[in-house]
Amino acid sequence: MSLIGRVDQAIRRSSAWRSIFRNAYPNDERSRAYAVMNNVFLHLHPVRVRQHAVKFAYTFCLGGLSFFLFLVLTVTGVYLMFFYAPSATQAYSDILKIQTLVPFGQITRNIHRWGAHLMVFFVFLHMMRVFYHGAYKPPREFNWVVGVLLLFLTIMLSFTGYLLPWDQIAYWAITIGSNMAGYAPLFNTPSKLLLLGGLEVGQNTLLRFYVLHVMVLPLLAAVFLAVHFWRIRKDGGISGPL
Amino acid sequence: MSDEQRPGPVAPVDPSRRTEIDKQRVPMAARPYRLLALVKQDAVVRVQKEPDDTVMTWPHLLTIEFFSAVAMSILLLLLGLFINAPLEELANPNVTPAVAKAPWYFLGLQELLAYFHPTVAGALSPIGILVGSALIPYLDRRNIHSTRPSDRKLEVSLFSILWALGLVVTFIGIFFRGPGYSFILPWVNGFFFSL
Questions:
Q1: Does residue A42 belong to the interface with chain B, where contact is any CB pair within 8 Å?
Q2: Cis before B59 (ω within 30)
Q3: Chain A, chain B: beta-carbon pairs less than 8 Å apart
Q4: Which of B66, B72, B142 to mutate to test the interface with A (most CBs of A within 10 A)?
Q5: Is residue B84 situated within a structural domain?
Q6: Which of A229, A135, A240, A155 is nearest to B136 (CA)?
Q7: Does any domain span residue B97?
Q8: In B, which residues are within 8 Å of A131 by CB distance?
Q9: Partner residues linked to A48 by β-bridges
Q10: Of the candidates A65, A97, A139, A177, the residue with the CA atom closest to the CA atom of residue B126
C-alpha cells in the first residue's frame, strides 16, 4: 500500500475521525439510507424520493436555489456587517472602504447585491413553477400560503437592504417605494412614522431598515423556511407529475 | 377486509391443549362446501405493493442539488468578479436625481401610479396581489385534486394573464421611463435604470 493510502487508512481508523463520521463512505442502499437519515443537514430529505422529482426539468431546483442564495446572502452579509455602521454620516464612507480597503470587500458586496436580486427573481420563478404544477392543491394549501409569506419576506429583505449603501440610488428608491406604501388612506402618516421613524427617510430609517435587514427579517425567514421544508415532507413529499 | 386480516387455514392444535371446542370441530373433509360465485383471478390477487417509482436520495437527488449549487456559485462568482454593484454619490435629500425609480420588483406598481389613483396603485394593488396569491389554493376548488393542465385551463390562463400584465408594466417601468418618469424609447434615449 502506498504511503498516502496508509495515511488515509490511519486517519479513517483514528478515534477522532470515527467520532465525527459514524459510518464509512456510503456505497450501498442501506448505508446511503443511513447517511441521509443520520445527517442533520441531509435528513431534511426523505431517504427515497419519487423518480419524477429528481428530474431537473421538474423543479429546475428553483426552491433549492432560492434557499442556497439565502445561505450565500447570510454568509456574505455577515462579512459585510463587520465593516459597516448604520449611521447616516458613516454608512456611505464604510461602503467606499469596503470597496477599496477591505480584503475581498468589493467582490463580497457584488455577490451580496447580485445574489439578492437573483433570490427575488428565483422566488418568483419558484412560485410560478409551483402554480403551473398545481402543487398548491390539497393537502399543500397552507404550504403555498407560507410560500407567499416567504416571497413577501424576500422582497422586504431586498427592499430594506437597498437603503443601506446610503447613496442617491438607495435614498430615492426607498423614498419612492415607501411613498407608494404610504398612499394607503388613514395609514399614511402612522405607517411612515413606524417604518421610516419620521416623515421622510433619515437616520431613524437607516437604523430601522438595518435592524430589520440583518436581524428581524432573516430570523423570520429562517423560521418560515423551516416550516416550509417541514411541511413538504408532512404533506407527502414533492407534488406528483402532471 | 384486506388479505392479511382474513383468517388463514387453522393450524393443527397441539393434542394436549385441545379444548371442548376443538373436539367439536367439523373435520375439513366433512365440511359441506357450496359454490357461491366465480371470481376473476385479478380481482382476488390484489397488488400488495405499488410498483416502486422511487429512487435513493443519495446519490440521485443530492447529485442534482450539488451541481445546481455549484452552477449558482460559479454564476455568482462571475457576476461578482466582472460587474460591480452600483454606487452613486452620497445620499442627498435636497437633490432629487433626474431618474428616481423604485427597485425593479416595485416598478410595476410605480408604473401603475402613472395610470391610477395612488390609493389604487400604491396600496390596494400590492395588498390585493399578496392576499390574492395567498388565497389561490382556497379559491381554486374546481377539479380539486387534478393537476393536469387540461383540467385547469381557466386557472392557468388567469394566472398567466395576470403575470403577463405584471411583467408588461414592470418592463415599461424599467425600460420605457426616463428623466422625470417621462415615457422614453430605450433604443433612442438609452437606459435609465440601476439594479
A1: yes
A2: yes
A3: 218
A4: B72
A5: no
A6: A135
A7: no
A8: 136, 159
A9: B56
A10: A177
> Would B55 be classed as within a structural domain?
no
Interchain pair A167, B123: CB under 8 A: no
User: Of B50, B55, B57, which to mutate for an interface test with A (greatest number of A Cβ within 10 Å)?
Assistant: B57
Q: How many C-beta atoms surround the C-beta of residue A115 within 10 A?
A: 24
Measured between CA atoms, the residue of chain A closest to residue B149 is: A242
- End-to-end CA distance of chain B: give it in Å, rounded: 64
Share of chain B above pLDDT 70, in %: 77
User: What's the pTM?
Assistant: 0.85
Q: What's the complex ipTM?
A: 0.92
What are the pLDDT tens digits along chain A (242 aa)?
Answer: 799 999 999 999 999 999 988 888 898 999 999 999 988 999 999 999 988 888 888 999 999 999 999 999 999 999 999 999 999 999 999 999 999 999 999 999 999 999 999 999 999 999 999 999 999 999 999 999 999 999 999 999 999 999 999 999 999 999 988 887 767 666 677 778 888 888 889 999 999 999 999 999 999 999 999 999 999 999 988 888 87
**Could you say which of B27, B44, B61 is where a domain stops?**
B44
One domain, residues B40 and B112: no
Answer yes or no: are the C-beta atoms of B75 and B138 closer than 8 Å.
no
Top-level class of domain A52-234: mainly alpha
Contacts of A26 in chain B (CB under 8 A): 58
Assess A113–B contact: CB distance below 8 Å, yes or no.
Answer: yes
Q: How many domains does chain B have?
A: 2
> Which chain B residues touch A118 with a CB distance below 8 Å?
75-76
Beta carbons of A56 and B64 less than 8 Å apart: yes
Contact state of B61 with A137 under an 8 Å Cβ cutoff: no
- The residue range of the domain holding B37 is 19-44
The closest of A201, A89, A220 to A152, measured between CA atoms, is A220
**Distance (Å, rounded) from C-alpha B14 to C-alpha B24?**
15
As a whole number of angstroms, the distance between CA A65 and CA B70 comes to 10
* Domain range summary for chain A, segments of one domain joined by +: 1-48, 52-234
| Residue B94 domain-assigned (yes or no) | no
B88 contacts in chain A (CB < 8 Å): 167-169
Judged by CB atoms within 8 Å, which residues 121-150 of A form the interface with B? 124, 127-128, 131-138, 140-142, 144-145, 148-149
